[in-house]
Amino acid sequence: MTKISRRSFLKLMGAIAPAVLMPSAFSWLDKNLRLGVPSKPNVIIFVFDAMSARNLSVYGYPRQTAPNLERFAERANVYHSHHSGGNYTIPGTASLLTGTYPWTHRAINYSGVVKRSLVENNIFRTLGDDYHRLAFPQNIWSSFIVSQFDADIDTFLPSDTFGENNSLLGNYFPRDRNLAIRALDDFVFKIGGPPVALILQSLKNASYSRETALLDSQGYPRGLPHVINYPLYFRLENLLSGLAALLPKQPSPFFAYLHLFPPHAPYRPSRKFNKYFVSDGFVPVDKPAHRLSDHLSQSVLDVARRSYDQYIASLDEEFGKLMDKMEKAGILENSYVVVTSDHGEMFERGEKNHETPLLYEPIIHVPLLISSPGQKIRHDVYSPTNAVDLLPTFASLAGTPIPSWSEGKPLPGLGGVEDLDRATFTVEAKLSSAFGPLHKATVAMRKGNHKLIYYTGYEAEETFELYDMENDPEELDDLYPSEPSFAKQLRKELLESFLAADKSYRK
Amino acid sequence: MNIVKKIPKLEQIAPVYAVIVLLVYTWSLLLFFWRLPSLLQSSTVGEIGVFFSYMAVVDLLESLLVLMVPVALSIILPAQWFYDQFVVKGSSMVLLCLGSLMFYYDNLPGEILSPRELLLKLLGAALAFFIFMFLIARIGFLERFVREFSNRAVIFLYFWIPVSVISLLVVLVRNIF
Q1: What is the pLDDT of residue B9?
Q2: Which of helix, strand or coil describes residue A274?
């Protein structure tokens, strides 16, 4: 065997080192310095969980719940008829991040996830690694979806970041986060059910109980806000100021998906807002209880609604501070800032919250406000849009092709055009299997000024409701029986879309 | 008797560990089957397998943790108090402790015990254990029952230990590669 001299070895190493290091050095330079090419604007998506547009003053709600969002709206595109893809976190988040409806992505059940073959179809991958991609799913259920896209995310902030306590076990398994969270935090060590681990969970519960007893809830008369069903407490001011400190440190351009748990129940406003809207004379429109509702009394619903409104106002104040800090840091000048929600919340027709087959506006009409870099004036958009439109919009703005698999369209005012003939959908199917036909579901189709709701599997017969959203925004007058020919036309379109999406699951 | 000699032998530990495994894994399995229909709606068979693996690994850790208690008592206490009747006393102890927790959680599933409440529950189980020991010393049938029961429970070790080891490997592989 030929021996290599010391001199030859050093020469060889001298040649190998640049060969190995140069591509990565160019890649680093390309990514960080862009070699003179101006950087793309950042994209920051704030998702406030369970925030209904119907309870926001920026959308005309009589209570002043969101003065800071109103302020933000003065420099943003305000979408007045924006709907979520689903009616709770799992399908709503998945629609937003995949640009597809629940009947396609199939994250339809509690603890459900996006269909495995579609996991690569997500907004993080679509925007590409030109962006530093940051995800903060504070809602554990949103982390079920977001953690599926781990491979396309550069920084994943666990749900308890900015929290007052840290007790999620799935975070200790970053390589298998999705299943570890689902198995450990959502099952074996889940708070509020019979513990799977008898001794370890008893010990964990005892430590949780002690930890929460020691938590300082000063400033929150109803206790610290927390993520329901999980041992995760937080303070609104720390959550939002934590984000304000985090964002300026991100390498530019960045894409941040920030899914914040408030104003989801339990509604725990800060002291300042604890007595807001009490005896303010506001009387919600009286609506009869729906046959599929829980038949809760109006007084119960009114109290819950007021707490929800107080919590929104409390959150809005902190959001205002966050915006001020972002403006001061110059982020707003070079960023698209999106404010939206994964679904809404309902306090009418005998139903509370959002875990229901009902798809009335309070549950599916969510805010969408988008401030473009340097935008100074307000632009109102009234044509119907949907959560599935965010992915194609930002793909287009980022200069990447709009994926053919997305069921959305670029938003009007951001590369898209107003299209009143377009049908958009919201799908609820939590009791159907993700692997089979949607035998039990509700679908709401919005087309132009009309909305058709289709219920299947909940009662012996399929039923429909039709509303004119322009003349009857409170959905009080069901036109389905009185306008049979128009109803038939819309019904055909809805059923065709529904059956086409469900076709591969029907034998 | 020195400390090393008071460590129970494998043939003494196995029946006690078998009782622990029987209780811990059966309880988990019951809850797993309770959850299974919802898992089947949204998870693939492979994912359910991984889900089960995490559960089995936690059960393995928990069962070993519980086993430490009678082993530690055997070492700490005078031999005639515990070591000499390790199988009967160890098995009775874990039966009563785990059984009382199962009973408690079955009746109050959503309750979260504070450290004080947990201590009180364990003291209650300890009291029941002393009463049971008193009865065992006087009723021969009880002692025979516990001994035979724990000896027969050993059969479960032949199933659950391999399953747990495979589960541990699954969890390790998923988190290393």
Answers
A1: 93
A2: coil
Chain A residue nearest residue B52, CA to CA: A183
Q: Is residue A499 part of a domain?
A: no
Q: What pLDDT, on a 0 to 100 scale, did the predictor assign at position B122?
A: 77
Report yes or no on A177 lying in a domain.
no
Exposed (0-12), middle (13-18) or buried (19+): which is B88, by Cβ within 10 Å?
Answer: buried
Biggest alpha carbon–alpha carbon distance for chain A:
95
- Looking at residue A37, what DSSP letter applies? P
Nearest CA in chain A to B115: A206
Give, in degrees to the nearest 5, the angle at Cα A231 between A225 and A236.
25
Residue B110 distance to chain A (closest CA, Å): 4
Residues 6+ apart with CB under 8 A from A473: A361
Give the Cα-Cα-Cα angle A253, A259, A265 (nearest 5 degrees): 165
pLDDT of residue B13: 95
CB atoms near residue A153 (< 10 Å):
19
Rounded CA gap, B10 and B14, in Å? 6
- A interface with B, Cβ–Cβ < 8 A, is 107-113, 116, 173, 175-176, 179-180, 182-184, 187-189, 191-200, 202-203, 205-210, 213, 432-435
Categorise residue A485: left if φ over 0, alpha if ψ from -120 to 50, beta otherwise: alpha
User: What's the confidence (pLDDT) of residue B138?
Assistant: 81
Q: Which domain holds residue A357?
A: 39-165+215-419
Identify the segments of chain B with pLDDT beneath 50. none
Q: State the CATH number of the domain containing residue A142.
A: 3.40.720.10
Question: How many contacts (CB atoms, under 8 Å) link A and B?
Answer: 112
pLDDT of residue A94: 98
The span from the CA of B77 to the CA of B83, in Å, is 8
Beta bridge partners of A335: A42
Q: Is B89 exposed, middle or buried (0-12, 13-18, 19+ CB in 10 A)?
A: buried
A436, part of any domain: no
What is the rounded CA–CA span in Å between residue A450 and residue A361? 12
Calpha distance A47→A89 (Å, rounded): 11
Q: What are phi and psi of A106, to 5 degrees?
A: 65, 15
ipTM: 0.88
Rg (CA), chain B: 18
Q: How many CB atoms lie within 10 A of CB A196?
A: 28
Q: Which residue has the tokens 């707003």?
A: A332
Inter-helix orientation angle B10-42/A198-214, to 10°: 70
Q: Which residues pair with A450 in a beta bridge?
A: A447, A468
Taking contacts as CB-CB distances below 8 angstroms, the residues of chain B near A435 are 41
Q: Per the structure block, which two tokens stand in for A60? A: 């005309």
Phi, psi of B78 (to 5 degrees): -55, 145
Closest chain A residue by Cα to residue B102: A198
Residue position matching structure tokens 């020991």: B133
Give me the number of domains chain A comprises: 1
Cβ within 8 Å of residue A142, ≥6 positions away: A47, A49, A89, A93, A259, A342
The CA radius of gyration of chain A, in Å to the nearest whole number, is: 24
- The answer to whether A109 touches A141, Cβ cutoff 8 Å, is no
The DSSP call for residue B136 is H
Q: A174: nearest CA in chain B?
A: B175
Judge whether A160 lies within some domain.
yes
What per-residue confidence (pLDDT) applies to A3? Answer: 57
Give the residues of chain A that fall short of pLDDT 70: 1-38
Distance (Å) from the C-alpha of residue A7 to the closest C-alpha of chain B?
39
The amino acid present at B11, given as its one-letter code, is E
